[in-house]
Each structure stands twice: as structure tokens, then as C-alpha cells.
Design goal:
Distance between the termini: 68 Å
Structural class: alpha/beta
Largest sheet: 8 strands, parallel, barrel
CATH class of the largest domain: Alpha Beta
Strand content: 15-25%
Length: 599
């Protein structure tokens, strides 16, 4: 049997199961399990020239537990299958998966990137049911997917669900890439999660971690006994390239079998579970040993080519599949096409947006708010396409690791104060009206406070307590996706930040696609504690401009003031290099979104 005909892992069929495992330095390999009473030598595997061992064992059935017994240089190793789709735990046994079956295509297609709104979710805290032990799970998350539909989000990004040590984790310490975290549920349950999301019109992105593995509960470590320099063996670099901030467990991106392992994992999520895209964690550490941007002597060309290869293979497997990089080094080549020497990602998280915007929102006093930096954040893009960036003010990283959610940062210990609510709403307005793919972190839509950690479930009572804030997010998403037909420009590429008032802390910008009524959108944001009264600002066209959203509306909070007017009449002469001007009122720490009626 040649390498090209062997599928790694356990592949069950009606009357048995085929096993295959890569262990090039082994002298002998056996599969042991409940089907042979864990007999050490009942089922030996045959060795292929490429170092892959295989066997066809009759009588094995789905649900049976198993391991590989590896004999090498007089020593024995008991290992979980690296390709195991299901395990009893990260330190126990693999389980024979269900016989593969053809899932009926749902007919679902993910939204185009310019119409994508992402909701970042952690299964263990989002899916937690009251008074139940352990972390939340996929069943609990499935029950709450209706919340996303009610909110209006059309894409969910799930923090890693690959098997990790214990039951509580962010998921960025994967032990077994192919197994669904056993405390979250089964492979079938995860497929049901994806199917239910699709039924509700919600695309699914899965977080994958290829920059390092483990480091805990890592059976891949010195898998077949071989290693060099005390490092990790066949799956890892065994020199200086192994070192990462999370341990010496960087996969060997130059070894064909390891590249295949990571490629197979990416394709599994797309093909077998029907997910729509992947978000890659910390890609800077895949392309550079130290996470630098084009660092002399520390770049990893094999890591770069791995990203190119997997992104290409994903789109061959599913033409609508997309990938997002968390690189945060502002390198435009991440989102350039492979044919142009890029890494081939569709989009990347934009540190050039989140950091200056959070700084402006969270500064202790108005004098410290850098409106020029806000302007630059609004204008930033990696290349030509504005939707190559994901923009946000909260993510799992931005609300932990010494940082907290926006309301908590604004007013520590008083996250429901007036200032916290106002600035949180102002930040949300920028996220949903700036060019880019907007993303929010779970609970942001009902003013979740404090910081994120994996044993603190969402406080769902806040959805009712802060119902107005939830409505604000609903309204922002509705405008962002042009669901009323009057704000098409928010799905467009163009932006002009034409008004920057550093003294009054005001920024005004024009968004459009084709331009004109129903398309052109004007946003005016007041970053000051002082209200703007009779404030004159430029408008791109004459006539009536209707206020589609005012973050100071009492509909969003009874403490807000409804300051301003429902419409503004713009007329010549112009201002701010625009042909017309108009006079507006804007409340403190508030934003207006205006457009003209579609004719």
C-alpha cells in the first residue's frame, strides 16, 4: 500500500476499521483497544516505505476506544491517534468515529465579506447553562443561536474547539487538532451546531491554532521516540525554530507529513463539518520564529508557503471557503493573492483600528483623545480592498490579558455608568460605520463588563437589563447591512474623513459605494464631554438628510437625552471641501448616522 492510498487515523466501515499512523522511527506498531481487550500484540500494523503504518482490523465498531502502541529502540510508547476525531479526554483514549456519511448540502452560502458581521463566541462561556457543572457546551450554544439571529449577526466565529487539557480553556492550547473538545460535545453535536447556524442564516468560522501545539497533554511530543536536542520529535522543529511564547512546540512546517497533517485538519473543518471559514491564530509566529514582521534571519519561508498551500487547498475543496489571519503586524501581503506572492488570506484582524479607537474611547480626559489617530484608524487599509480587514473594539485578546471590556476600561468598577454606556455606544457606532468587516465579542451587545475568562459565563440577565443597548446593536447591524435600503454606502469601499476637529474632538466622515440618495452615508462622532450645538459641518449633497441613528436616543437608554433633530437640511455654499453644509446638534460621546431617502 502506498502513501497516497492511506488515510491517516481510524476509518471505520461496516464490518471493521482501517488504521494508519505515521511513525517513521518505530520498529513495530500495534493498535490496542476495547475491541481486543487492550491486548498488546493482537493487531500489528504493517510498515509502508514512507514511515506510515497501517492495518485493517475486522470487528471494530464506532465507539470503541483505542490507542497505538509504538515500539522503538527497545522502548514502548502508548499514544493517542494524532488524527483521532473523538477522544474520551486529552490524556485518555481515542474513540472510533461514526462511519462517514454524506451530509445533505444545506444550500447555505456565506455572505460576501462586505456584508459580513462577525460575532466572536467562546463555547464554554456562551453555551453555559445555569447551575450545571463544568463548562458550557455545544448543545447550550445551539439553543442560543437564535440570539445571534435576533441580534442580526450573520457570521459566528468560534474560539478553538479542538481537544485541549481539562474542561476550561480559551482553546489556544490544542492537544489534538482533529478531535472536538470532549467537554463541549461530540463530532455529531458540532455538525449539528453548524447545521443549525446555517438554518438560521449564520455562517460559521472556526479558530485554528497552527503556530504551536499544546504544550500540555501533548501525545505528539516525541511521538515515535525520536527527537533531537531534547525537542519534540517528528511533528516539531528540533532546533531554535521550535521556540514560541507558548513552549517549544512549533510544528515543523518544512516536513511534508506535518504540512499534510495541518492541511488535512483545515480541510476537515470545511469538508466534514461544513464550516464556512477558518480564522488562523497568531500567523506572525507561523511566518517568523519570533513573531516579527520580515525579521532578518528569523523568517520561516516554510510557514509562509504552508499558509499559501492550505488557503489554496481550502478553496479547491469549497469555492466559498474563506480564511482570516490574526497577524496584527499590518503586513498587506497576508491578504494578497498567492499568485502575487501573498499568503492568500481573505482578511486579517486590524490592529491599526482597535488600538487607536480604544485609546480614544478609554482616555481619562478629553484632552488625551487623539482625533488624528481616530481618523487614521478609519482610513487604514492593507491594500485596495477595505474589506480585507476585520475591525472591532472588543475581542478575546482585547478584553483579557490585563485589559477589560470597554465599559470597564472607561469606568473601572462602574461599567454601567453613564460614561461607560455612552463611550461603549460610540465605539460600536464606529465599528459598524467604518469600512471593514465589523466584529463584536460575545456579550458586548448587552454591556457585559469585567474581563473575559473561561470560567465566567455570560450574564444573560443583562440582555433584559440593558435591552436598549441590545437594540442599539440591532439598529447598527441593520444599517450596516442596508436592510432598510437607505444606507448602501456602508457596504461600499469608499470613505472620506473630511472633518477632523482636534479642539472639539469631532470627526466627520462620508461613506459611499455608488453615491447619492440611499447610498451616501454621513457619520459625525463627538468624542467630547461637551455637547455640540449648532455645529456646522460639510455635506456631500443638498437637500434633506435624515438621522438614521443617534446613539444618544432614549430608545437605547433612559439616561440618554435624544439630543438633536430627526433631519438636517443641507444647502450651498459648501464647507470642508464639500459642496454643501448643514447645522447639527450632537450629544456628548455620541454619533449620528445620516443619509438621504432613496428616490
Amino acid at each position: 500500500m502506498t502513501r497516497s492510498t492511506i488515510s491517516k487515523g481510524a476509518t471505520p466501515y461496516t464490518s471493521g476499521c482501517k488504521f494508519a499512523v505515521w511513525a517513521p522511527h518505530a520498529d513495530a506498531v500495534f493498535v490496542i483497544g476495547t475491541f481486543n481487550d487492550w491486548c498488546s500484540d493482537a493487531n500489528p500494523l504493517a510498515k509502508n516505505p514512507d514511515g506510515t503504518w497501517w492495518a485493517d482490523v475486522p470487528g471494530v465498531k464506532p465507539g470503541d476506544e483505542y490507542r497505538f502502541r509504538i515500539v522503538a529502540s527497545g522502548k514502548e510508547y502508548s499514544r493517542i491517534d494524532p488524527y483521532a476525531r473523538r477522544v474520551t479526554s486529552s490524556v485518555a483514549n481515542g474513540m472510533i468515529p461514526e462511519i462517514p456519511r454524506h451530509w445533505k448540502p444545506s444550500g447555505f452560502s456565506p455572505p460576501p465579506l462586505n456584508q459580513t458581521v462577525i460575532y466572536e463566541m467562546h463555547i464554554g462561556t456562551f453555551g453555559k447553562k445555569t447551575a450545571t457543572p463544568g463548562p458550557g457546551n455545544l448543545e447550550g450554544a445551539i439553543e442560543r443561536l437564535e440570539h445571534l439571529k435576533e441580534l442580526g449577526a450573520n457570521t459566528v466565529e468560534i474560539m478553538p474547539v479542538a481537544e485541549f487539557p481539562g474542561g476550561f480553556s480559551w482553546g489556544y492550547n490544542p492537544s489534538l487538532l482533529f478531535a472536538v473538545e470532549s467537554d463541549y460535545g461530540t463530532p455529531r453535536t458540532f455538525r449539528e451546531f453548524v447545521d443549525e447556524a446555517h438554518r438560521l442564516g449564520i455562517a460559521v468560522i472556526v479558530d485554528v491554532v497552527y503556530n504551536h501545539l499544546g504544550p500540555g497533554d501533548l501525545d505528539l511530543w516525541q511521538f515515535d521516540g525520536w527527537s533531537e536536542n531534547g525537542k519534540g520529535g517528528i511533528y516539531f522543529y528540533n532546533d531554535w525554530r521550535a521556540q514560541t511564547p507558548w513552549g517549544d512546540t512549533r510544528p515543523d512546517y518544512g516536513r511534508p507529513e506535518v504540512r499534510e497533517y495541518l492541511r488535512d485538519n483545515a480541510l476537515m473543518w470545511i469538508r466534514d463539518y461544513g464550516v464556512d471559514g477558518l480564522r488562523w491564530d497568531a500567523t506572525a509566529y507561523i511566518r517568523n520564529a519570533h513573531g516579527h514582521d520580515n525579521g532578518t534571519g528569523s523568517d520561516l519561508p516554510d510557514g509562509w508557503s504552508l499558509m499559501q498551500w492550505i488557503n489554496t487547498e481550502m478553496r479547491k475543496a469549497q469555492t466559498t471557503a474563506f480564511s482570516i489571519a490574526e497577524d496584527l503586524r499590518c503586513n498587506p501581503f497576508l491578504t494578497k493573492a498567492v499568485k502575487d506572492n501573498g499568503a492568500g488570506f481573505n482578511a486579517q484582524w486590524d490592529g491599526g483600528f482597535v488600538h487607536p479607537v480604544r485609546a480614544a474611547l478609554c482616555a481619562a480626559d478629553d484632552a488625551a483623545r487623539n482625533i488624528d489617530a481616530v481618523r487614521d484608524a478609519l482610513l487604514h487599509r492593507y491594500y485596495l480592498d477595505a474589506f480585507e480587514r476585520v475591525i472591532y473594539t472588543e475581542s478575546h485578546d482585547e478584553v483579557a490579558n490585563g485589559k477589560a471590556r470597554i465599559p470597564e476600561e472607561v469606568d473601572p468598577g462602574k461599567a454601567s455608568s453613564w460614561a461607560a454606556r455612552k463611550k461603549s455606544a460610540l465605539g460600536a457606532a464606529l465599528v459598524f460605520t467604518a469600512p471593514g468587516i465589523p466584529m463584536i465579542f460575545q456579550g458586548q451587545e448587552f454591556l457585559e463588563d469585567d474581563w473575559f475568562h473561561d470560567q465566567d459565563p455570560l450574564d444573560w440577565s443583562k440582555k433584559k437589563r440593558f435591552a436598549g443597548i441590545f437594540r442599539l446593536y440591532q439598529d447598527l447591524i441593520r444599517l450596516r447591512l442596508n436592510r432598510d435600503g437607505q444606507t448602501a454606502g456602508l457596504c461600499g469601499q469608499e470613505i472620506s474623513v473630511y472633518h477632523v476637529d482636534g479642539k472639539s474632538k469631532v470627526v466627520g466622515y462620508h461613506r459611499w459605494g455608488r453615491g447619492g440618495p440611499g447610498d451616501s452615508v454621513l457619520v459625525v462622532a463627538n468624542f467630547s464631554t461637551q455637547p455640540l450645538r449648532n455645529y456646522t459641518i460639510g455635506f456631500p449633497a443638498q437637500g434633506t438628510w435624515r438621522v438614521r441613528l443617534n446613539t444618544d436616543s432614549k430608545a437605547y437608554d433612559s439616561d440618554f437625552t435624544d439630543m438633536g433633530y430627526p433631519s438636517v437640511d443641507a444647502a450651498e455654499p459648501g464647507q470642508n471641501e464639500l459642496p454643501c453644509k448643514g447645522t447639527i446638534d450632537v450629544a456628548p460621546y455620541s454619533a449620528l448616522v445620516l443619509s438621504q431617502d432613496k428616490q
